[in-house]
Amino acid sequence: QVQLVESGGGLVQAGDSLRLSCVLSGRTSRDLAMGWFRQAPGKEREFVAAISWSGIRQYYADSAKGRFTISRDNAKNTVFLQMNSLKPEDTAVYYCAAVIGYKTTDQTMGTHSIYDYWGQGTQVTVSS
């Protein structure tokens, strides 16, 4: 059974940094594109960042560009989201997701409906 388990969330102040991790179990991650999404209370789930199966291509929402960095370690079946200069509006539950690579295009990497596997989420709270 495929599982994604996120960790690294917490309560921080504006301007601080956090590094989220997501570990995949149950299959190899080598053919999976991976993404991070977030959902704030009362809002829809939104795309944050994604990375191709090879790690060569990264994709970011405008809100994440210049502050967040996605990376992966296929040997450890792990994807990371380094978040710097955090803002109160970054407060949300952050979800890790995975999709079989051949199903993706540059245009669909930010579309949550294409993702096959999801984690349970980790809370990130940024105080002002």
Describe this structure in words.
With 128 residues, the protein is mostly beta strands. The protein is built from no helices and 11 strands. It has strands spanning 3-7, 10-13, 18-25, 32-39, 46-51, 58-60, 68-73, 78-83, 92-100, 117-118, 122-127. Strands 2, 4, 5, 6, 9, 10 and 11 form a 7-stranded mixed β-sheet that branches. A 4-stranded antiparallel β-sheet has the order 1-3-8-7, with no helix packed on it. It is globular and about 40 Å long. The model has no long low-confidence stretch (mean pLDDT 95).
- Kindly name the structural category: mainly beta
Give the topology string: H per helix, E per strand: EEEEEEEEEEE
How many DSSP helices?
0
Round the mean pLDDT to the nearest integer and report it: 95
What's the Cα radius of gyration?
13 Å
How far apart are the first and last residues' alpha carbons, in Å?
A: 40 Å
Work out the strand percent: over 45%
In helices, the fraction of residues equals: under 10%
Morphology: globular
Q: Poorly predicted ranges (pLDDT <50, ≥5 residues)?
A: none
The number of E-state strands comes to 11
Biggest beta sheet attributes = 7 strands, mixed
